[in-house]
Amino acid sequence: MYDVGKTTKLNFIFMSDSHYGRREGEQADYLQWGRLLARAACQAYGGSTDDREHRLLVLGGDLVNKADRQEEWDMFFEAGGETLQSMRVITATGNKGKTKAVSYEDRFDLPANGPAGNESKFYSCDFGCCHFLVLDSNQMGREEEEKVRTLRDWIRADLNGIRQPAVFAVLHHPMITVGTSPEDEDRAAFMRRTYLPLLEEAGVDMILCGHQHLYSRSRVLGAPAEGDPGMIQLMTVSGTKYYEGWDLSGMEVSRERVSAATVFRADRTGIRLRTIDPEGNVLDELTRPLRPKGRKRD
User: In the sheet that 9-15 helps form, which strands lie side by side, from edge to edge?
Assistant: First the structure.
């Protein structure tokens, strides 16, 4: 269902945290997110709503304020409009609403090929030349030996079987934080110790995340071998709730208090990204080669 064939290139959009803010002066709706989505779709696909099978929107979670309130979802889908209806969607599970995965699963027809008991919160899928590994980071910050072992085994098996040249890991919480809370840093430190080496060894090109409500692109993670451009993390926010970073030392690029969408263009040689705001202003651009896949580190 989720493999669109052996196409040699793929354009897709990444957004996260589309829910609105609750501070004074911030609109209690999803109109800005919808406007940003439409702008990004124009850049990615020229504004056409045809050929849904080859149009992909990747979401980093926290789509609405309260996931158990239908009126929130109604506003979300209304704001997305025809543009959203014209796209395939995959999403990570966020922390807002503490809802069960079935809430996302019913609305977006997500794959369910994850480890036993978490089939729809951890999953993977292929689109053209890209492989997406989607993780529920709500469950990845705890030292539960059996659960950690099960998840590590599943991640390793999935990444060992990839055939696509471009690989993205998608999760809600960042592995490299901007210091907005001790809780986030504790979770990130555990994920870096426990799961990040698996992604690095397999040649994952980029980590896509949200949660901290600003846009940032990290410096290269770890110490890649010669000829390896290394893995980077991209974090974004597309709604109207913003935070400021306390520690941006791990970031190559950061933009605060702005809603952003990133348009990716991937092929069998490299990845290009362009990040825009709702007016179409370019916030960030990058072109980089793909990482070698499956190389074991010493």
Answer: 88-91, 56-59, 9-15, 261-267, 270-276, 282-289
The residues with which 235 forms a beta bridge, in sequence order, are: 209, 216
**Rounded CA separation 227/195 (Å):** 23
Estimate the share of the chain in helix, then strand, then coil, as percent rounded to the nearest 5.
Answer: 30, 25, 50
Question: What is the CATH number assigned to the segment(s) 9-289?
Answer: 3.60.21.10
Which residues pair with residue 221 across a beta bridge? Answer: 231
Tell me: pLDDT of 20 over 60.
Answer: yes
Cα 233 from Cα 173, distance rounded (Å): 11
Q: Which pTM was predicted?
A: 0.94
CB 108 within 8 A of CB 89: yes
Sheet of strand 251-255, all strands in order from the earlier edge strand to the far edge? 123-127, 130-134, 166-170, 206-209, 232-235, 215-218, 251-255
pLDDT tens digits for 204-238? 999 999 999 999 999 999 889 999 999 999 999 99
Q: Could you give the CA distance from residue 174 to residue 208 in angstroms, rounded to a whole number?
A: 8
Neighbours of 24 (CB within 10 A): 5
In this structure, the strands spanning 56-59 and 88-91 are parallel
**Tens digits of residue pLDDT in 166-212:** 999 999 999 999 977 889 999 999 999 999 999 999 999 999 999 99
Q: Which residues contact 278 (CB under 8 A, 6 or more apart)?
A: 32, 35, 36, 39, 259
